[in-house]
Write a structure and sequence with these properties.
NADH Oxidase; six-stranded mixed sheet; four-stranded antiparallel sheet; globular; alpha+beta
Length: 353
C-alpha cells in the first residue's frame, strides 16, 4: 500500500508578501499610530513593534501598541487565507531583539483553499465612533462573537447584566476623569488628531460641531470615543483578556479582537474599542474584580452595536506607505535591528508563545 502523497509546499514570492502586508496594515491601531514594522528575508516575515510610535504617556507598558500589532498579525493571517496562502506563526520568538513579536512563514500547498470574498471584510471594516442605535444586539450574537476568541487562547465575556453594565459605566467615567486631569495625556492625544498625514485621526472623521447627545469623549468634548453609552440604547460591551496582563496575552488579544471585529462587520455590526478604562491601572483591576468576577485579566473592552440604516459610510483612515513599514532583504538575513528597549518591562518572557 503506497503512502499518501506529501503536499507540495510553495513559499510566497515577495510580491505576494508585499500585498499581504499592505492588507495587514489596514488593521485598527490606537489613535491610528500604526505602530508596526515588517521585514521579509529568506522566506521569513517578521513583525516587530515600532517603539518610536508608542504613546509614552497613555500607554507606558505598551498594551495598546501590542494589541494593535496583534490585530495586524491577524489581518495578515486572514488575508493570507483569503488569497490561498497558509501561515505558520511563531509568537514572541527568542532572540536579542525584544521588539520582535512574531515570525511568519507564508506558503501554499496544493491543498490550500482560496476564499477571496473575505477580502471584502478587510475593506469594509471601520472604526465608526458615531452613536449606535437603540436596537439591542441579541445575546446569541454576542455569545457567537465571544466564542471567536477561544482559538487564539483569549478569554471573552459579554457584559450584559444590568448591574455589571452600570458598574462598568461608573468605572469607565472614573478612568476618563483621571485622564482629563492629565495635561500630558491630553497633549499626546492632540498630537495624533487632525495631523493631515498618513497616520493619526484625520479631520474628516471629526464632527464639525459637538453633538449635545454625545457622551463624554476621551479626546476633545463631543468628539470621537464615548464612554457613557454602555447603558444607553442597544450598546453592549465585550471584554477580552487572559490569565496574565503581559505582552504574550496582549498580542493574542489583539488577534482575537481582529477576528471578532471582522466577523461583526460581516454581520453588519459596528465595533469601537474602549481602551481608556484599561489605561488606568486601578480601574482596569477593578473591572476585572467587580465586572468580570475575577474570571480573567481584561486587556481591552469593545463596544458593539448597530449603526442607523442609511447612515453614510466613513472615509478610510490614512495608512503609511508600504515602503515605510516593510523592509525586504535578500535570501540571507541582514544585520539585526537593535532593540530600542521598553519591552522587557512590559512583562515579556523570551520565547513565550
Amino acid at each position: 500500500m503506497s503512502s499518501p502523497a506529501v503536499p507540495r509546499i510553495e513559499p510566497a514570492p515577495t510580491t505576494d508578501v508585499e500585498r499581504l502586508v499592505s492588507l495587514a496594515c489596514r488593521a485598527p491601531s490606537v489613535h491610528n499610530t500604526q505602530p508596526w514594522r515588517w521585514r521579509y528575508a529568506g522566506g521569513l516575515l517578521t513583525l516587530s513593534a515600532d517603539l518610536s510610535r508608542r504613546l509614552a504617556v497613555e500607554d507606558p507598558r505598551g498594551r495598546d501598541l501590542t494589541l494593535s500589532c496583534g490585530a495586524a498579525l491577524h489581518h495578515l493571517q486572514f488575508a493570507a487565507r483569503a488569497l490561498g496562502w497558509a501561515t505558520d506563526v511563531e509568537r514572541l520568538p527568542p532572540g536579542p531583539d525584544e521588539t520582535e513579536l512574531a515570525r511568519i512563514r507564508v506558503h501554499r500547498t496544493d491543498r490550500t483553499v482560496v476564499v477571496p470574498e473575505d477580502l471584502e471584510l478587510l475593506d469594509a471594516r471601520r472604526t465608526d465612533r458615531r452613536r449606535f442605535t437603540a436596537w439591542p444586539v441579541p445575546g446569541h450574537r454576542l455569545d457567537d462573537l465571544c466564542r471567536l476568541a477561544a482559538p487564539w487562547g483569549v478569554r471573552a465575556a459579554a457584559v450584559s447584566d444590568d448591574g455589571a453594565r452600570f458598574r462598568l459605566e461608573l468605572l469607565a467615567n472614573q478612568a476618563l476623569t483621571a485622564l482629563e486631569l492629565d495635561a500630558r495625556r491630553q497633549a499626546e492625544q492632540d498630537h495624533w488628531i487632525g495631523r493631515g498625514s498618513a497616520d493619526g485621526i484625520p479631520p474628516d472623521l471629526l464632527p464639525d460641531e459637538p453633538d449635545p447627545l454625545q457622551a463624554r469623549s476621551r479626546f476633545r468634548p463631543g468628539l470621537l470615543e464615548d464612554t457613557r453609552m454602555v447603558l444607553h440604547g442597544g450598546d453592549r460591551v465585550i471584554a477580552l483578556g487572559g490569565a496574565d496582563d503581559d505582552v504574550a496575552g496582549w498580542l493574542r488579544s489583539g488577534e482575537a479582537m481582529s477576528a471578532l471585529w471582522l466577523e461583526a462587520t460581516r454581520e453588519g455590526l459596528s465595533v469601537v474599542p474602549m481602551s481608556q478604562p484599561t489605561e488606568v491601572e486601578e480601574t482596569r483591576r477593578e473591572i476585572g474584580r467587580s465586572v468580570l468576577g475575577g474570571a480573567f485579566e481584561p486587556h481591552v473592552l469593545l463596544r458593539v452595536g448597530w449603526q442607523a440604516i442609511g447612515r453614510g459610510g466613513l472615509p478610510r483612515t490614512p495608512r503609511r506607505p508600504l515602503a515605510d513599514v516593510l523592509e525586504v532583504q535578500g535570501p540571507a538575513w541582514g544585520p539585526k535591528v537593535p532593540s530600542r528597549g521598553g519591552f522587557r518591562p512590559w512583562g515579556r518572557t523570551p520565547g513565550a508563545s
